[in-house]
Structures are given as C-alpha cells and as structure tokens.
Amino acid sequence: MTDSVLIVEDDKDIADLIRVNLAELGVEVSHQDQGNKALSLAIEKEYSLLILDVMLPGISGLDICRQVREKKPHQAIIMLTAKSSETDRVLGLELGADDYMTKPFSVRELQARVRSQLRKVEMLRAANSDVMAENDAPLVIGNLSIDQKNHQVTFNQQVLELTATEFELLHHLASHPNQVFSRSQLLESVWGYHHSGYEHTVNSHINRLRAKIETDATSPQIVQTVWGVGYKFSPQGVE
Fold first, then answer.
1. What is the Cα–Cα distance from 31 to 27, expressed in whole angstroms?
2. Terminal alpha carbon distance of the chain
3. Which CATH class is domain 4-128?
4. In terms of DSSP H, where are the helices of the chain?
5. Which residues are CB-neighbours of 176 under 8 A, at least 6 positions away?
6. What is the DSSP string of 59-128?
7. Do 4-128 and 139-238 come out as alike in CATH topology?
8. What are the structural domain ranges in the chain?
9. Are 78 and 49 in contact (CB under 8 A)?
10. Which of 35, 151, 164, 217 could tie 120 with a disulfide, CB 3.0–4.6 Å?
11. Which fold has domain 139-238?
C-alpha cells in the first residue's frame, strides 16, 4: 500500500519544496493551502501523514490538529512552526501533534521525520491486519497490558486511547522497567532521530501519556521523572 501525505501549507515555494523531496520517498503527495478545505480533506479521506503549517488562511494548523485528533486518534501529524514561535510548538504538541519542525528546515531532516512517522503507520497497519505473529504475547506488568498485536493498552481493565506515538513511548519505557532514559535517547528510540533542540517533543508526549494513565498526573507513579536525567517506567505504579 502506497503511503499518502497531505501537505497543508499556504507558502507555495515551501509546499513545492516538501512535495519534491517527499516524492523521493515514493509517497503520494497532495497539497492544500486553505485551512478549512484541508480540515475537510483530513477528516473525510485517509492519509498516512498530515504535515500542517500553523499559520493558514481560514483556520489555523493548530485547530486542524485538534479537530483531526479528536476524530482520528491514530492519525500521524507533523507541525511546521516558525523558528521564533515556542508557543506554537508547545501548543501543537499538547494538542496532539506527533512531531514538529521549525522553518527553515533541512530537507534531509524532513525526510527522516517523515520516514519515522510512516514506520509507525506501517506498524499500526500490521497490527490491524493480523500480520504480526500470533505468539506475540502482550507485555503485562501488574494491571497494565500492552498488546502490540492489537495495538491496545489496557490499565485496570480500562482501554486507554493512545496515539501511535504515545503507544510506542509507553511500550519502550515499560519494556525496560526502572531503566532511566534521557530525552535524547527517547527521541532516537521512539521517534527515530536525534536532533538537539527537539527535546520538548518528548516532554509534551510524556505529559499527554501521564494525563491518560496516571491517577494524578501532577504526582506520577508510573512514568516518573528522574531529575537531571530523564524518565523511567516504575512497575510499582501499576500494581
């Protein structure tokens, strides 16, 4: 199955640059420069990945991200933000973007980010189509079950609605209980790249994951912070 990418960008030169370089990856690329039209397309059609600029005619990329995430929890989304706009980057991640890139950006870096997201999409497809091995048993720790075959997380008999990236982040941490990972290590293992300056991506996903799994996200017992180092999964928190 050929992957499809929707570029939502009102700067034609940037959109053309992205289109040409994604074509090298063998994906089908569509482009929309109007926010409202892009939102309709993103909801009505099935795209492997959305690349959303923040500033758009009509509604913003942030609004598109929020509304798409509500209707399609597993949709892969990369936000494009201005280099100086820290607020947009943080808000984009908090609203559910899987990753972000700041303009101007390296096309090679863009390709790497896109490949990383498409790998997650392929894993999700495999889970949904029973391609994964029948003996691929869920990872069970206490009252937490992480089922890769069905791409499902159950905690205290409740199914958690996680994005593909949140799922991979939790699975990676839980697969190495009590091991502390730095933000850079998590970027490399979960997102598939390491670029300095993007550590906030990890912070925001940890916050979103805690909001879904912790009894009190302000006092996390499962995904814990090791100050000055990074994060770890505590098995005691799920018993």
1. 13
2. 41
3. alpha beta
4. 12-23, 35-44, 61-71, 86-94, 107-128, 164-174, 183-186, 200-213
5. 233
6. S-HHHHHHHHHHH-TT-EEEEEEETT-HHHHHHHHHTT-SEEEEES--HHHHHHHHHHHHHHHHHHHHHH
7. no
8. 4-128, 139-238
9. yes
10. 164
11. Arc Repressor Mutant, subunit A (1.10.10)
Higher per-residue confidence, 168 vs 85: 168
Residue 32 to residue 35: CA distance in whole angstroms: 8
**Residue 138, both tokens:** 């869920």
Per-residue model confidence as pLDDT tens digits over 33-50: 999 999 999 999 999 999
From residue 116, alpha-carbon distances to 100, 109, 165 in Å are 12, 11, 10
CA nearest to 190, candidates 125, 97, 120: 120
Q: What is the pLDDT of residues 59-93, one digit of tens each?
A: 999 999 999 999 998 899 999 988 667 788 888 88
Unique residue bearing structure tokens 């730095």: 182
- Spatial neighbors of 50 by CB under 8 A, at least 6 apart, are 5, 6, 8, 42, 64, 65, 68, 75, 76, 77, 78
Going by DSSP bridges, is the β-strand pair 230-233/49-53 parallel, antiparallel, or unpaired?
Answer: unpaired
d(CA 106, CA 112): 10
- The pairing of strands 230-233 and 152-155 is unpaired
Question: Measured between alpha carbons, how far is 63 from 52 in angstroms, rounded to an integer?
Answer: 10
Q: Which residues are registered as beta bridge partners of 177?
A: none
